[in-house]
């Protein structure tokens, strides 16, 4: 996915092994792409804080309203498969720009959905258009950010995408309380439209280049990657990680915890309790880099499983549960870039395809999370978290082949 010695092309010219490129300024690029990651990926999670008001308005139940999250997630996953190769072919800035325009229109459309059927259909379109951002942003980092800054950029951007689950739920809950759930989508659309200005000013265009087989060659790399068992296992571990991540937040929204069920202020505080972890993990990225990426992934999965298992026993203790959630989110934020780096090392010559498949895996998992919680709601908050902990243990098993391979090389 990422190749540290890749020779990017950009508006300033073409680099060669003997003539390093003029790299884009890292700080404004990272800030912009991280903020956009929160906004665009956060569209997946806004509805988790809106399930009750949406259900009331659309004439359905909160459990059925989870399909607005699942539909977005599956469409987002499918969109990754298109956006990764398109970004490689036409340039990241062009794809990000087109995606923002389309996502703005789709987000406005969601705000006027008259019933659940229309809401699910329009969320599908929104997910497909929003998917243009993330793989293009990661591709832009590869082509335009200096190698010594790429690790930091990757951690910040992926942490922003994970932070979206918390930040956008908090924002959506606050906006909906004052203006109604439809205003959440109006405001999101306005921010998308306004973001086109810094995108055009900060990001550099990438020169279109002929890859021989064009898009056909880019898409052909995907089945080749899927014939590699270790990579498939890593993609499946990503599904387990993200399904666990979203399942926990869906459980908070619709299944308990017993000590704060029905208390919107307490639920808001519980969601916000994970924010310090999402700030700390990028700051500690230099320390984490001392460990090999496969080892970091396995350790992070293990911490996530332990934190969720502990949380399943702490539903009656709000502060202790908040601490468990903080550790869980920190573990997920550490695991995601570690898995990305491991995939990168395994597929250095198929960056666009590898990014696309990784993102697809993320949002297949994110799509399954709400349905997992919805199916288990009758078991109660604690038992939902125990199932999630078991899914994370499966993630460890799936990541182990990469760790063993790294130790043998």
Structure description:
The protein has about 400 residues and is mostly helical. The protein has a single domain (about 25-200, about 215-409), classed as Growth Hormone, Chain: A, CATH 1.20.1250.20. The protein is about 75% helix and about 0% strand. It contains 18 helices and two strands. The protein has helices at about 25-40, 50-60, 60-65, 65-90, 90-110, 115-130, 135-145, 145-180, 180-200, 215-225, 230-255, 265-270, 275-285, 285-290, 295-310, 320-345, 350-375, 380-409; strands at about 10, 15. Strands 1-2 form a two-stranded antiparallel sheet. A hairpin with a 2-residue loop joins strand 1 (about 10) and strand 2 (about 15). Helix 13 (about 275-285) packs parallel to helix 16 (about 320-345). The longest helix is centred in the middle third of the chain and has 33 residues, at about 145-180. The radius of gyration is 20 Å and the shape is globular. About 55% of the residues are buried.
């Amino acid at each position: 996915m990422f190749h540290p010695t890749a020779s990017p092309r950009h508006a300033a010219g073409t680099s060669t092994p003997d003539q390093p490129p003029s790299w884009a300024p890292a700080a404004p690029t990272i800030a912009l792409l991280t903020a956009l990651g929160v906004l665009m990926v956060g569209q997946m999670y806004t509805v988790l804080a809106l399930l009750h008001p949406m259900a009331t308005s659309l004439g359905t139940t909160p459990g059925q309203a989870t399909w607005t999250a699942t539909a977005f997630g599956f469409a987002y996953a499918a969109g990754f498969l298109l956006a990764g190769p398109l970004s490689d072919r036409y340039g990241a800035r062009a794809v990000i720009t087109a995606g923002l325009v389309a996502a703005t229109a789709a987000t406005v459309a969601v705000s006027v959905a008259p019933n659940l059927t229309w809401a699910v259909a329009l969320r599908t379109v929104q997910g497909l258009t929003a998917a243009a951002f993330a793989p293009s942003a990661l591709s832009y980092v590869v082509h335009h950010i200096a190698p010594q800054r790429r690790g930091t950029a990757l951690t910040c951007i992926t942490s922003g995408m994970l932070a979206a689950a918390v930040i956008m739920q908090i924002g959506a809950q606050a906006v909906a309380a004052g203006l109604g759930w439809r205003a959440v989508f109006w405001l999101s659309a306005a921010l998308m439209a306004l973001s086109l200005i810094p995108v055009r000013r900060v990001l550099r265009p990438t020169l279109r280049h002929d890859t021989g087989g064009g898009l056909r060659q880019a898409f052909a790399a995907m089945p080749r990657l899927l014939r590699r068992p270790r990579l498939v296992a890593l993609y499946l571990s990503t599904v387990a990680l993200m399904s666990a991540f979203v399942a926990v937040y869906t459980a908070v929204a619709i299944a308990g915890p017993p000590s704060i069920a029905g208390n919107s202020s307490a639920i808001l505080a519980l969601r916000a309790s994970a924010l310090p972890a999402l700030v700390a993990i990028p700051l500690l990225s230099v320390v984490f880099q001392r460990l090999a990426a496969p080892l970091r992934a396995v350790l992070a999965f293990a911490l996530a499983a332990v934190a969720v298992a502990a949380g399943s026993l702490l539903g009656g203790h709000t502060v202790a549960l908040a601490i468990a959630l903080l550790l869980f989110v920190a573990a997920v934020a550490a695991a995601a870039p570690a898995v990305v780096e491991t995939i990168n090392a395994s597929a250095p010559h198929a960056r666009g395809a590898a990014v696309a498949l990784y993102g697809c895996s993320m949002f297949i998992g994110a799509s399954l999370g709400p349905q997992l919680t919805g199916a288990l709601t009758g078991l109660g908050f604690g038992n939902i978290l125990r199932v999630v902990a078991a899914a994370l243990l499966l993630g460890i098993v799936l990541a182990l082949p990469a760790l063993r391979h790294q130790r043998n090389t």
